[in-house]
Amino acid sequence: MDFEQLNCLQKDALKEIGNIGAGNAATALSTLLNKKINMSVPNIFILPFSQVVELMGGDDTPVAGGYLQVEAKAPMSILFVIPEESLKLFLKILVGKQETATITLDELDISALKEVTNILAGSYLTALSGFTNMEFNPSVPALAFDMVGAILGNVLQLYGEVSDYALVIESVFEEEEKEVKGHFFLLPEPGSLEIMFRELGVVF
Predict the structure, then answer these.
(1) Is 178 helix (H, G, I), strand (E, B) or coil?
(2) Domain for residue 99, yes or no?
(3) Which domain range does residue 148 map to?
(4) 21, 121 Cβ separation under 8 angstroms
(5) Where are the alpha helices (DSSP H) in the chain?
(6) What does pTM read for this prediction?
(7) Are 144 and 9 in contact (CB under 8 A)?
């Protein structure tokens, strides 16, 4: 099944899930931080997992990656990735950390990024559950700050087998004049995407 060739109905379904998830996440983040956070989803698309590294800028690009696994009828893993330059501004928004030339994550930073990963995962899974009537049970997030290649290698090691495709949700966070872009990946186990689309009522 070639998920790169989605029709308009399938794309619209994914976009709607992404927008609802983003709205839920923006509300949760605003409540958590006690400040107005807007969140938008410029693009949602599916690409072969082998192209995820390229999308993130190549093996040697420094990123923070939040990772968790999801038990469900359509099991998957979730990865939230934010590049180093965006991470500096993101931490300023989240915990008031001053931007510096290099990043060293302390316990507060790690805790905040795990919580954001948790909120994003919960928001998107809640939206997906609303459309499919499936239950999703996410694990506690893990976090790493490393090169893209190392983080994805670790994810694959935990994952057990290579996902054929990744559902990519571009995520833009805005607070006043500050804007941060990250990528949120749903990594369905082989066969899970077919189940999700079938439950959504949009078949190939």
Answers:
(1) strand
(2) yes
(3) 8-200
(4) no
(5) 8-33, 52-55, 84-95, 107-132, 148-159, 192-200
(6) 0.88
(7) no
Taking a C-beta distance cutoff of 8 angstroms, is the pair 135, 122 a contact? no
d(CA 110, CA 106): 6
- Counting the structural domains of the chain, the total is 1
Whether 15 is covered by a domain: the verdict is yes
Q: Are 21 and 127 in contact (CB under 8 A)?
A: yes
Assign residue 156 the CATH number of its domain.
3.40.1550.10
Mean pLDDT of 79-93: 90
Tokens 């290698």 — which residue?
153
CA 118 distance to own-chain centroid: 10
Choose between 204 and 110: higher pLDDT: 110
Q: Interior CA angle at 183 toward 26 and 36, to 5°?
A: 20
Q: Are the C-beta atoms of 136 and 72 separated by less than 8 Å?
A: yes
Q: Within its chain, how far is the Cα of 70 from the centroid?
A: 13
Examine the pLDDT at 155 and tell me if it is beyond 80.
no
